[in-house]
Design a protein that fits this description.
17 helices, homodimer, Urease, subunit C, domain 1, TIM Barrel, nine-stranded mixed sheet
């Protein structure tokens, strides 16, 4: 009892994800002091060595690194369920809702989104949206880790919804304003909350800023050592714009302006070809994979297996409740493993351990936080979750000849088995009760905000173009 | 207050699935008397008309027909998580476990399986396995609906695991014994428990019985008006056997012996060609689709969308915890919708309402229970579930311009939102507490049984061939 800890997690099935595997420890323990992990080992040893203010008994539970959502748009939680099963997600489903969004509504969406995900074990949110008052403050208050990315584009309002334009006209003032706002935001929030909140620069897509503004963003990123978080090779719209404006595809274009490098976290790559994947990996860029969202809105499985086979790092992201309906990294692990088996017609593609690492150690690395989180190791930030295995759908728990815990967390868990969540050494949820926010109030606020948003949409005559109105009339919803 | 009901469900978002849509009723109610639904309508009307022994307040909840699992192998719940991510599921993962199964262990598996599924809203189980003592009795006791199918094959033990044999030798005595056992089982259990338990005849696959025994099974099925429940066109093994033995593919072969008809519920059709699908549908056979299992073990999406486009009926099935890891029809609805979008590279493929109907009205029809269950209509059996929408992951609940409840139940629900379950007018679960079985005892029993099974596997030297042992050694599990 010579060393002091604030929290001692004892008797768990510990998965550290350190090294190249899942790092299993039977009857394992984690000691936390302040915001850091100070020790990981056998329960008998740590129980003998540490005197702790608080002990969490993890008997019958898995103890994991907190899950990392590498790409998500939190305000869109208000739009869950209004935009799926349609051919043109953005124009025929989302756009009237997006037009009606206000900063107040966005905050209600973010709150709902973060709480939903926290209850499913997400501890780190790489959140991407137009910055609004209260956004970062909420992340600060609730206590999760955030990698915030204020959207930067040079588009006039409504450009995205108007597909009649063969080529967007850039609104350079809007672009300049967005860059300045992002930099101000970075000044205020990068490494804030004891480093728990950090900022990435987010040019929205290669087709959404003129080249000189893309270059300006990159210069600022390099000067300030900020990563770039960007949608790349996402689909038809971007492809057409790039072809018309530059006569090039997105990835070669980005390479030509020096964008491909370790500083880049490129999301989606829905349409990336094999040679483009090779180019991205060779330049050291990371990939964000949103399996659920791209499956639901495009019916496509992005080339993440190829990316990884070539040595690239891939993080998993939920994208949004409007494109995915679910903000759960457990869902994302499962869909990634299954979709890749289908893409490759091979049950060996993306086994459980790989997607588990993509949601933890590899995800942390992809978004530039490898030194901070993603594994349970002394010195890392104490982002730890406990998953209750004493649940019918995770039973039985077996050790030999095959240990079935990781496969069952990937293929059988719902996310609701997450029992407790610790971020930076602070217990944010215990026994499924969120300690740092009022769940019932936030759900009620989101419900009222979404109803207000829907009333605005109904006042916009263009909502008559929504593709799902036909399904409503046919009694299918 | 002139009419009496045993149970009145009031103030729900009712989805009847009657007709061709989801049959939505705002502030809807369901009146139940005995084992039947006697009325469905507006809450104000039914509250005025009925005096009920028990009232369930469904405010903020969705009220749905109980979900129908059209194909599943319940004993394999004990094997959850030991057999995924491998190239040869049966030989390199399952077979040592299957060899070690005993009737006592099977019962522990069935109990775990049924309770897991019940907690996720499954009310009807089309369970397929070698019959053992206590199997049907447990279904009777716990109170769910079951369509039990005793496995019939003419294979010597271990045949499935030995791929060195180009052609199985049939063990006709084993086949005869299995037929007799199935008929005895049908005599005892078909239409037992007030009709809640029924029996189907289950020749395991076209390659697993000699033709004369297949014909014998069909004769008995016709004489007794029993459906045939059969694995068809499931993969390489079957295809090779059929090619060697008959020089024919499974579906034309089955047609040649008069098997294709309304009496047939054919499961998987993993390898069915377009013309075979057309033939099946034209003959009136139904299809069982196990999206999760076939995705996980084969990386394949069976041709269910084609089957339905041609007018065929398709039910959804979980298959087993060893092939799918999850026994939840919510999981199955989601995976079916997403996998088909990927197969067809089209977000419109298998929209939420279609898979919702496949798990209810259409599933009932596929397994021959269209007159009994699958919709909420007066005269149907009272199999009803309540789903709590007051959950962060199902929020917000919206009505206009787009009602988002069905999409969110399909794409966002985990199954854990199921609040209460009624089967044949009896409340089996209320507020997530199972009333007809001891959940903790059954989970403990399954854990002990699975550990015993694993000890048997470890004593079998052939377990050294398990593909996942390599992953164990590499620290990946």
């Amino acid at each position: 009892m010579s060393r002091r800890a604030d929290i001692l997690v004892l008797h768990g099935h510990v998965f550290t994800t350190a090294g190249s595997g899942v790092g299993y420890l039977e009857d394992g323990a984690v000691a936390i002091a302040g915001d850091r992990i100070v020790d990981v080992g056998q329960s008998s040893q740590l129980a003998a060595e540490y005197e702790a203010c608080k002990t969490l008994d993890a008997t019958g539970k898995a103890v994991l690194p907190g899950l990392i959502d590498s790409h998500t748009h939190s305000p869109e939680a208000l739009l869950r369920g209004v935009a799926q099963d349609v051919p043109d997600y953005m124009e025929k489903a989302m756009s009237p809702f997006v037009r009606a969004m206000t900063p107040e509504l966005a905050l209600a969406g973010t709150r709902l989104h973060v709480l939903e995900a926290l209850k499913a074990g997400t501890t780190c949110f790489t959140d991407y949206c137009p910055p609004y008052a209260g956004w970062a403050e909420f992340y600060d208050q609730v206590g999760v880790r955030a990698r915030l990315t204020p959207t930067i584009n040079a588009l006039a309002a409504d450009t995205m919804a108007d597909r009649t334009k063969i080529l967007y006209e850039f609104d350079e003032k809007a672009g300049q304003h967005a860059i300045e706002a992002a930099l101000e935001f970075a000044d205020r929030w990068h490494r804030a909350a004891d480093g728990r909140i950090t900022v990435m620069l987010g040019p929205q897509a290669p087709d959404m800023l003129p080249v000189d503004q893309l270059m300006t963003v990159m210069e600022h990123a390099q000067k300030r050592d900020l990563m770039i978080h960007m949608h790349v090779a996402q689909g038809d719209r971007e492809h057409r714009q790039m072809a018309h404006r530059y006569g090039m595809r997105s990835i070669p274009f980005l390479d030509s302006i020096g964008y491909l490098g370790e500083q880049l976290f490129a999301v989606h790559l829905t349409e990336a070809t094999s040679s483009e994947v090779e180019l991205m990996v060779s330049r050291g860029a990371s990939m964000g994979l949103c399996s659920g969202a791209i499956g639901l809105i495009d019916g496509v499985v992005p080339p993440a297996a190829e990316y990884r086979r070539l040595g690239g790092r891939v993080g998993l992201g939920t994208d949004s409740a409007s494109s995915n309906n679910s903000i759960s990294m457990f869902n994302e692990m499962k869909l990634t493993a299954l979709f890749n088996k289908i893409r490759h017609v091979d049950p060996r593609s993306m086994p459980a351990w790989e997607v588990f690492r993509m949601a933890t150690a590899e995800g942390a690395s992809a978004i530039g936080l490898a030194d901070t989180v993603g594994t349970l190791e002394a010195g890392k930030q104490a982002d730890v979750i406990l998953v209750d295995l004493a649940s019918l759908n995770l039973s039985p728990v077996l050790e030999r000849p095959i240990r079935n815990i990781v496969p069952n967390m990937v293929y059988a868990a719902t996310g609701r088995e997450v029992h407790s969540v610790i971020v930076a050494g602070r217990v944010l949820m215990e026994g499924r009760r969120i300690l740092t926010a009022d769940e019932a109030a936030i759900r009620k606020e989101a419900q009222e905000a979404a109803e207000e948003l829907c009333r605005s949409v109904l006042r916009d005559p263009r909502h008559a173009e929504l593709a799902l109105l036909e399904a409503m009339r046919a009694g299918l919803l």
